Amino acid sequence: MAEDGLDWFGVRCVFAWTGWDGRPFEERITLWRARSLDHAIELAEQEATEYADLNGYEALGLTQAYAVTAGTEIISGTEVFSLLRGSDLAPEDYLSAFFDTGREHTQES
Q1: Residue 3 structural domain
Q2: Mean pLDDT for the stretch of residues 25-42
Q3: How does pLDDT run across 68-79, given as a tens digit for each residue?
Q4: Which label site among 46, 71, 88, 94 has the fewest CB atoms less than 10 Å from its CB?
């Protein structure tokens, strides 16, 4: 833990964009300095409510947190969130099912 008693946490919250055609969903990861994982979730949920209210979105109540390794300096490439999910799907099928469904709103490179 840092000298000030706070560590870094990445927290993912999920929103529904209620005013858009197709009602897309947003997965948003934010960084927090907090005393614990529970504290980081509390801070992120408060901010998620404000974010949703400000933009007319619906916060869906899914909050997942990740503790950045204690003492890690936040620099380019620092891992701020990780989620492991078991699946019997083949790699291409897994990506198609969870990340590349064809309905993502992404910028083409």
Answers
A1: 1-70
A2: 95
A3: 876 678 889 988
A4: 88
CA distances from 103 to 28, 57, 98 (A): 17, 19, 11
Q: Of 30, 29, 39, nearest to 7 (Cα)?
A: 39
Exposed/middle/buried for residue 40 (C-beta within 10 Å: 0-12, 13-18, 19+): buried
Q: Which pair of structure tokens corresponds to residue 47?
A: 């901010």
Higher model confidence: residue 49 or residue 98?
49
CATH number of the domain at 32, please. 3.10.20
> Within a 10 A sphere around the Cβ of 31, how many other Cβ atoms?
16
In a domain, 18, yes or no: yes
Instruction: Please give the span between the terminal C-alpha atoms of the chain, in angstroms, as a whole number.
Output: 39
Number of domains in the chain: 1
Whether 11 is in a domain gets the answer yes
